[in-house]
Amino acid sequence: MPQLDPAVFVPQIFWLVVIFVVLFLLMQLVAAPRIGQVLERRRQALDDDLGRAAQLKAEAEGVLGAYEKALANARVEAQATLRQISEQMAAQAAARQRQLTAALAAQIAAAEQRIAAGKEAALADIRSVAVDVGQAVVEKLTGTRPPPERMEAAVAGTLARRAG
Question: Where are the domains of the chain?
Fold first, then answer.
């Protein structure tokens, strides 16, 4: 093996050192700055992206806050509208109830008047019937017909005692 020949060790070591120094200088002067620039650009791009993400996050939080505020305002407005409509409907229902109550009261008053008139007519008829029956009974028992004024006074007295 020629590489292991001790006579060629010195030139091999010399060329090894020369090539190492040349490669080292190439790496130091050419490759390392380029790699450093690439790494710096990547770091700068990453910082820019992180800054932009933070800015977008802040904007998103602002938009979310505005949305929540608008939603809360819409809810308040909807509740106010609902309350207003409910109050209007309650007022309309109360007005209809008052009208119905007034109509029913008028009907009840009219019915009470008809009942009172019917009662008076019935009482008047009952008095005349009572007078006629009383006269017929007295005539049957005594054989003489009593005067109508006396019988009317007796019926009126009896009805007054029953009513009182």
Answer: 11-163
Regarding pTM above 0.70, the answer is: no
SS3 state at 7: helix
Summarize pLDDT for 12-36 with one digit per residue, the tens: 889 899 999 999 999 999 999 999 9
Looking at this protein, which amino acid is placed at residue 161?
R
Q: Residue 131: how many CB atoms within 10 A of its CB?
A: 20
Question: In this structure, what DSSP letter does residue 144 have?
Answer: S
Please report where in the chains the tokens 């990453």 appear, as a residue: 46
Contact of 146 with 163, CB cutoff 8 Å: no
